Amino acid sequence: MRSLTLHLKILIAILVVLGISVTAYQIFVLGIPVTEDATDDLWNIDAKVEFVASAKDPVKVQMFVPPLSRDYVSLNESFISNNYGVSVNRVDGNRKVTWSARRANGKQTLYYRLVLTKRYTGEKSKVKGPTFRDSIAIEGPEKVAADALLAPIRQHSADVETFISEAIKRVNNSSDDNAKLLLAGDPSPAHKAKIVELLLSIAHVPIEKVHTIRLMADQPQSPELWLRSFNGNDWLYFNPETGEQGLPSDRLLWWTGDDNLITVDGGKKANVTFSLNNSEMNAIRLAKLTDENTDANFLDYSLYGLPLQTQQTFMIMVMIPIGVLVILILRNLIGLQTLGTFTPVLIALAFRETGLGFGVVLFTVITALGLSLRSYLEHLKLQMLPRLSVVLTFVVVLIAAISLFSHKLGLERGLSVALFPMVILTMTIERLSITWEERGAGHAMKVAIGTLFAASLAHLIMSVPELVYFIFTFPAVLLILVGFMLAMGRYRGYRLTELVRFKAFLKADS
User: Fold this and answer.
1) Neighbours of 506 (CB within 10 A)
2) Are the C-beta atoms of 413 and 362 separated by less than 8 Å?
3) Using one digit for the tens of pLDDT, what is the confidence trace for 386-410?
4) Nearest Cα to 473, choosing from 287, 291, 280?
5) 336: helix, coil or strand?
6) Which of 115, 158, 322, 391 has the least CB density, counted as fewest CB within 10 Å?
7) Which residues have a Cβ under 8 Å from the Cβ of 259 and sit 6 or more positions away?
8) HSE (side-chain half, CA atoms, 13 Å) at 496
């Protein structure tokens, strides 16, 4: 007996831990929303390219577009132009679009449109980057100034991260004569980044320029320059003005390197204008779009990966254990008497079609009339199988009659009675009649009322939209329910209704 108890406890613990672990993984690692109303940001970015084309030369326009490799995923990408050929290529880790035309004249306008969202997965691909670089050749006063700057940088830094931050701060120190010499009167962010790169190259620390767009709606903007370095595991981003580490979450990496955003052959006066707007979309729908537009398997191994019609069926099926749990609590802990465990759950499922109020009325009417017929057939001394056949046929005729009269009276809700499980009603009538004969009319009415109450409560709980979504999205929760059911299987204590039954004994003792 002890070994059996230990075995049951271990089994319950395994089921509960497994259910909690899988659910926690889906929520905290994969990022699946806990509620159906959860929304996520959807960004629409337009890049408007304007230039003046030369009438004599072919036109070739090249512009960097986001690589979208890790944090963001594209749901739609459009290249809008008139009589231009379009191609997209990868160059040195960047993506570049090329518009080309044999002839064009005058002012030209091209559009690049991108719809993106945050990538829906906690498992990002490993990144690679350089961890060493050769020194940039430098001589004369510039070399002396660079060495003078590097000495305090080495002294005040403990690792690569602090070394880079300290270098950026030294270069941006307007009172440092060595920094002034290297900047040579050009304090632009791009030139400062070039001097930082020079200093870091002497220390063999690789760094590259990163150009980003801020995901801020309704504000025109230009690409923002950042610096990054690879530490062997991940990229470290630095503000080239302050040396602060960490790329803000609202920055979208557009391209890397020293090249300009756009180059135009056969044209002049090129200009790119960015406009952004933000909207929200249901998180699960957005996750489905992510899976459809990428190779991600965010929802491949969930019930959302099933065909839509099958999903509707499973939304009902996964709630059946919830209904069974309700009946189990009502019977084992409260002591409510019902016609078995599954009959109330099946009646609760029928209430999904008829509605609770109308379904209770229909159930009561059909069961009462069926019991009357069953009582009449008892006088004919029929065997069980023919008797059940007659009752079933009577139930079908009664359902058809109720549907017909409801339609004539304009009560369209009555048409749904045809979806009531006829076999369940027939067996319910048969079992109630047997209970009536064996234990009396009072007990039969008590069981009937208990069954109807349990079915109604199970229906209400099984129809809660938030609960349906949670169980369907995180089906591993059912393992926790199984563990609870196993624990209740060994319960031998008193039920709440027995407190009323034994109340007389307490009075007698006193």
Assistant:
1) 9
2) no
3) 877 887 788 778 877 877 777 777 6
4) 287
5) coil
6) 158
7) 64
8) 7
The 10s digit of each residue's pLDDT in 406-461 is 777 766 555 555 555 667 777 787 788 778 778 877 888 888 899 999 999 999 99
Tokens of 446: 């008590």
H or E segment to which residue 225 belongs: strand 224-230
Q: Strand, coil or helix: what is 381?
A: coil
Q: Which residues pair with 62 in a beta bridge?
A: 98, 263
The structure tokens listed for 428 are 């319910």
Higher per-residue confidence, 74 vs 497: 74
Beta-carbon contacts of 405 under 8 Å, excluding residues fewer than 6 positions away, are 414
User: How far is it, in rounded angstroms, from Cα 210 to Cα 194?
Assistant: 12
Distance in Å from the first CA to the final CA of the chain: 38
Burial environment of residue 493 by CB neighbours within 10 A (0 to 12, 13 to 18, 19 or more) = exposed
d(CA 374, CA 155) in angstroms, rounded, equals: 98
Q: Which helix (H) or strand (E) holds 265?
A: strand 262-265
pLDDT recorded at residue 356: 85
Q: Are 418 and 366 in contact (CB under 8 A)?
A: no
Contact 229, 168 (CB under 8 A): no
327 and 339 Cβ atoms separated by less than 8 Å:
no
Write phi, then psi, for 490 (nearest 5 degrees). -105, 10
